[in-house]
Amino acid sequence: MNESGLRIEHDLLGEVAVPADALPGIHAARASANFDLAGRPVHGELLRAFGAVKRAAARAAHHAGTLDAVRLAAIEQAAAEVMEGRWDAALATDALQGGAGTSTNMVVNELIANRACQLMGGQPGDRSLVSPHDHVNIHQSTNDAYPTALKVAAIRGCKALEDAVVRLQESCQARERDFASVVCLGRTELMDAVLMTMGRRFGAYADALGRDRWRISKCEERLRVVNLGGTATGTALGAPRAYIFRATDELRAITGLPLARAENLIDATANNDAFAEVAGILGALAVNLIKMSDDLRLLASGPQGGIGELILPARQEGSSLMPGKINPVIPESVVQAGLAVLGDQQVINQACARGCLEINPYLPLVADRLLNGLDLLRRACGALATKCIDGIAIDANRCAAHASAITAQATAISGKLGHHRAGELARQALATGRTVRDLAIDAGLLTGEEFDALTSPAAVMRLGA
Asked: Which string of b and e fits 243-275 if b means at least 16 CB within 10 Å?
């Protein structure tokens, strides 16, 4: 430290002055100077997962006899503080980095080292006391620490997303019950088709979300296999066997996640198809959210000049010019979230595909898009449930009016009268302006009671004749 209150730190490229009492050091300074592409920091969950990785590695190294108990205690406490998010701001570096995430790994290493120095009664920067390389990064490489931390963060994100999908599914199931007896018009190619109930429409959304919930729950199986212990290329160079066989066990105990060491560490280091697979599952959820949201917009359209069968909760004025206009802002925002995730899916696929030989230099991009996509979908599901579907109402008169559509009513009675005769009634209704019901009764083909039974909620949703 010099008189200006700075300390001088050294690396391969030279020296950098940093504030004497700062926990970030030369690696944070280099990263800050080099990377400002994304304009947002590394995701907080990735940093907290890194804290867990460093804590596990320290425990495993102590077990292997390569890290003493005093340093272990200090590193564990510092890493636990990183896990709690205490140092997120100090660890902030740009999300998009070269070097396969080495900057993130080293910034975490040096912050934990400097904090451990404080905990041991020393000063930040005293590498003889705790070294970022020799003690915090012991038996590790960025190439096993970074993807392991990313998988831990992604599993946690998937669990939170699954909860949000369940909440949205339950909201759709509640509307399924509420609207079970509301007969409405089903449409194909945007044209009048057959009678159905509004409840069954929401039941279909709930079932689609049920598949999403199942797929997301299975992401853990793809992400739980980690390469911690593989060091640079999966050969475990520089790591003792006692450490290799212990590190993932310690990480599993710390996180409570069912993590397992990859049998083939070279494969797990070089190939990142698991992240692409998870991105595809997120894309499937995005597709369902977009479809559902666009359906809600269409069914609520108008209301006077459109379909107007659904009444979405009014959230804000819809126009600076048109008085009384209310827009479907929540479904519109959810569509945008879904489209963003679908775009990110392609980015993740490309980044995973461009791994080169034994490592992937583009994991920071994968981490940024995957973790932010998990957050985006979680918030989208929550908003759609609480700000839209929970409060949806039905315009019963509008549903009834549309349910009297000629094509739908003719189809409803075609099983009784036959396709040809029902079609004749439809043509007559179109020509005369009379209803299919009245024409069928006047022709003595059906009684009013028989027609009403064929077009009742129970009849239109009955499975089979």
From this structure: bbebbbbbbbebbebebebbeebeebbbbbebb
Per the structure, the count of domains in the chain is 3
Range of the domain at 429: 404-460
- Residue 253, pLDDT score: 98
User: Which residue, 354, 372, 397, sits at the end of a domain?
Assistant: 397
Encode pLDDT of 134-182 as tens digits.
999 999 999 999 999 999 999 999 999 999 999 999 999 999 999 999 9
For the chain, the residue count is 465
Q: Catalytic positions, please?
A: 319
In 120-197, alpha helices (H):
142-178
Quote the CA–CA distance of 234 and 262 in Å, as a whole number.
Answer: 10
The CA distance from 28 to 107, in Å, is 5
Task: Give the ranges where 88-141 is alpha helix by DSSP (H).
Answer: 102-119
Is the overall model pTM greater than 0.70, yes or no?
yes
CB 203 within 8 A of CB 172: yes
180 token code pair: 């079970």
Give the end of a domain, one of 365, 397, 429: 397
- The reply to whether 10 and 114 lie within a common domain is yes
pLDDT digits (tens, 9 = 90+) for 258-294: 999 999 999 999 999 999 999 999 999 999 999 999 9
Residue 239 forms part of a structural domain = no
303/443 same-domain check = no
Is residue 352 located within the same domain as residue 408? no
